[in-house]
Write a structure and sequence with these properties.
The protein starts with a helix and ends in a 5-residue tail after the last helix. The chain contains 17 helices and eleven strands. The strands form four sheets. A five-stranded parallel beta sheet has the order 3-2-1-4-5, with helices on both faces. By secondary structure, it is of the alpha/beta class.
Length: 506
C-alpha cells in the first residue's frame, strides 16, 4: 500500500524533474505558463476577430485589385473604408455563429477536420445572413463576391490557426502546460477502458497520474506508465500529494456508498469528479440506443469492423496496398541487393505470427539480423529492454549494418505488403505477435486479436517501442473499439512523420 510519505517523495521527485527540465523549456512554454487558463478562450476569440478582418481585407483585394474571375466597372468600385460597417457587422455575426456552432469554447480532442468543418459552416451561415441583410436594406450596393471570398478565406485562415494551435498544445503538453492531472479510481474493465482512451488521446489534455483499486493484485501492479497507487482509502492523500485536478470514478454500481464518499471528498478538496456508469462495461461505440414510446432501450453492438465496414476496409487495403507495393518496388530491389551484399543468408525472413482470432500465418520481413539470430537469442536474453512478453533490444548485437538502417526507418516491414494483399494482415491494425508472446496474454489483452493485424497502428504513431507492452495493448484495444475509416486514414498519415523521426524504432 502506498503511504503518504512515499507519495510525497514521488511528487518531490516529479517536481524536481520538472524543475530540472525548466532550463530546457522553450520560449512558447515559458510564455504559456504566464497566461491563466481562463484567458485562453478570450484570446482565441480576439485572434479569430483579427483573422476575420484580415480575411475581409484579402477578399477586398482579390475582388477590386486583382479583379479575380470578373472585372469590376470603376463606377461601381467602393473604397475599403465604405465597407467598415459591414466588416464590423460580419465580425459580430461570425463570432455569434461560432458560439452556436460550438467553435467556442475550444474543445481539446476535437479533430482538425471537425473543427475546420464547424468553422466553415458557421462562416457560410454568417456571410449568408449578412448578404441577406444587405439585399434587404442596401440592394446592389456592396459586392456579394467580396463576402463569398471572405467566407472561403475565413475558413482557410482560421483552419490554419487551429492547426497551429493543435501543434502548439501538443508541444506544451511536453511541459505539462494545459494538462489536467487525473486520478482513476477503479481498475476493472471500465477503468481499463478509460486508461486506453487517455493513452490513445493525449490531445484531450488529461494526464492520468495513476489509479487506485481495492484488489491487491491491481493496486500494486502498474499498467504501463499508469502507476498503481494503492487502495481506494488512499484517495484523499493521493489527491493532495499529486495535485490532482480531476478524478474519474469507475466502480461497480454495488459500491454506491463508496462512490458517494469519494464525491464528497472531491468536493471538499475542490477536485472535479466524474463517474463512469458501470453499464455492461460498454463504450459509446458498443452501445445501440433505441426508444420504446419514450423508454430508452440500450443493447450491444457488434465490433465495428464487420459487414460492409469490413468490405470497405479490405477494399482500402487492396487499393492502397497495391499502390504502395508498385511505388516502393525500386526501393525493395535496392534493399534486397544491399542485404545480399552485406551478409550471407536469405533476403526475406519468414516468421510465424498470430493474426485475427488467433489464426497463425507466415509474416514476411526483410532480414535485418545475422542468419542464425534465433540461435543466439539465449545469449542476449539479459539485454531485453521490453516489458511483458515482448523481446526487444535497442542496440541488438545481432543486427547487421543494413539491418540497423532498415529497422530504424521500418523498411524491414515493407514485404508485409504481400501479407496485406493476401488478406492475412491489414494496412492498419495491431502488430502481430509471436505465438509464445500471445500465450502470455492476460485475458483482457486477447481483445486485440479480434481484428486483423496491421502494417502500422495506433501505438506505432504514439511512441512505438518506447511504450510499455501494456500501453501498446491499451492502444490496440482502443483502436478495435473505436475503428472508423477516418481513424485509419489519420493513422496512415501520422505514420509517415513517425517513421521519418524514427522515434522508438528498434
Amino acid at each position: 500500500m502506498a503511504t503518504v510519505d512515499n507519495l510525497n517523495l514521488a511528487e518531490s521527485a516529479s517536481q524536481e524533474s520538472r524543475t530540472t527540465g525548466g532550463s530546457r523549456e522553450s520560449w512558447l512554454a515559458s510564455l504559456a505558463r504566464r497566461v491563466p487558463e481562463r484567458l485562453w478562450t478570450p484570446l482565441l476569440v480576439g485572434s479569430d476577430a483579427l483573422l476575420i478582418l484580415a480575411a475581409f481585407v484579402t477578399a477586398y483585394g482579390l475582388r477590386y485589385q486583382l479583379q479575380l474571375f470578373i472585372a469590376v466597372d470603376p463606377a461601381f468600385q467602393l473604397p475599403l473604408t465604405s465597407y467598415l460597417p459591414q466588416v464590423l457587422l460580419l465580425v459580430v455575426f461570425l463570432l455569434i455563429a461560432f458560439r452556436f456552432s460550438q467553435v467556442y469554447p475550444y474543445q481539446p480532442g476535437r479533430s482538425w477536420v471537425e473543427e475546420t468543418w464547424r468553422i466553415a459552416t458557421a462562416a457560410t451561415a454568417g456571410v449568408i445572413i449578412l448578404i441577406a441583410v444587405n439585399l434587404l436594406f442596401r440592394p446592389m450596393l456592396y459586392s456579394r463576391l467580396v463576402f463569398l471570398y471572405t467566407a472561403i478565406l475565413v475558413t482557410l485562415y482560421l483552419g490554419v490557426s487551429r492547426l497551429l494551435i493543435m501543434m502548439a498544445r501538443s508541444h506544451l503538453r511536453d511541459y505539462d502546460i494545459g494538462v489536467r492531472r487525473v486520478l482513476l479510481i477503479g481498475a476493472g474493465d471500465v477503468g481499463r477502458m478509460v486508461m486506453r482512451t487517455l493513452a490513445a488521446r493525449p490531445d484531450y489534455g488529461w494526464k492520468l497520474v495513476g489509479f487506485l483499486d481495492d484488489n491487491p493484485a491491481k493496486s500494486s501492479t502498474d499498467v504501463g506508465r499508469f502507476k498503481a497507487l494503492g487502495p481506494i482509502e488512499n484517495a484523499s492523500e493521493v489527491m493532495a500529494a499529486y495535485d490532482i485536478q480531476r478524478v474519474i470514478i469507475c466502480l461497480p454500481w454495488q459500491t454506491h456508498r463508496t462512490i458517494q464518499r469519494l464525491l464528497r471528498e472531491c468536493e471538499q478538496m475542490q477536485v472535479d469528479a466524474y463517474v463512469v456508469p458501470d453499464l455492461f462495461q460498454l463504450t459509446k461505440n458498443q452501445m445501440k440506443v433505441q426508444e420504446l414510446n419514450g423508454i430508452p432501450l440500450i443493447s450491444t453492438r457488434d465490433i465495428s469492423i464487420q459487414g460492409w465496414n469490413l468490405v470497405l476496409k479490405r477494399a482500402f487495403d487492396l487499393v492502397v496496398g497495391a499502390s504502395m507495393a508498385v511505388v516502393s518496388l525500386p526501393l525493395l530491389l535496392v534493399i534486397a541487393a544491399a542485404i545480399r551484399l552485406d551478409t550471407p543468408g536469405p533476403i526475406i525472413f519468414k516468421q510465424t505470427r498470430v493474426g485475427k482470432n488467433g489464426k497463425e500465418f507466415s509474416c514476411f520481413k526483410f532480414r535485418s539480423m545475422v542468419h542464425n539470430a534465433d540461435d543466439l537469442r539465449s545469449q542476449v536474453a539479459e539485454l531485453n529492454e521490453s516489458t511483458g512478453p515482448l523481446f526487444k533490444i535497442r542496440n541488438d548485437p545481432r543486427l547487421t549494418r543494413v539491418g540497423r538502417f532498415i529497422r530504424r526507418y521500418s523498411l524491414d516491414e515493407l514485404p508485409q505488403l504481400l501479407n496485406v494483399l493476401r488478406g492475412e494482415m491489414s494496412l492498419i491494425g495491431p502488430r502481430p505477435n509471436l505465438p509464445e508472446e500471445v500465450a502470455q496474454y492476460q485475458e483482457w489483452m486477447k481483445k486485440r486479436l479480434s481484428v486483423s493485424p496491421g502494417l502500422t497502428g495506433l501505438w506505432q504513431v504514439s511512441g512505438r517501442s518506447n511504450l510499455t507492452f501494456d500501453e501498446m495493448v491499451l492502444l490496440d484495444i482502443y483502436y478495435v473499439e473505436n475503428w472508423s475509416m477516418g481513424l485509419d486514414a489519420s493513422i496512415l498519415l501520422r505514420s509517415v512523420p513517425a517513421v521519418l523521426r524514427a522515434t522508438g524504432a528498434y
